[in-house]
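Intended use. Records like the one below are meant for learning the mapping from a protein sequence to its folded structure. Do not use them to infer anything beyond what is encoded.
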Amino acid sequence: MADMPAFDYHIDIPGTTIFDGTQAMKGYALNKMCYAFNKAENREAFKADEEAFMEKYGLNDAQKEAIRKRDVLGLIAAGGNIYYLAKFAGIFGLSVQDVGGLQTGMSTDEFKDYLKSQA
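Structure written out for the chain above:
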């Protein structure tokens, strides 16, 4: 069945935002900004003036508000890709496991234990 030409490969996982082409287009500016955080000078520029840095990359109002609130789940809904958002989260000392915990409603330690139990 998965080899059928019109098969929908998306799996509906309640509470999960699927990063697809639509989300990629929606989050282009946000992901481009987060990619810039690979450079220390950009991380410092963001910390010095977040509003100017967001304007420089053309974030929309929803993305800006999620940045201001440090709302990683809101950033995912606004088109953020977790691999780029990890750069943003890292500025504030958050790991991908911290974000995984947020997504699942678990603490970071609970999420890590869950991951270990799935191995």
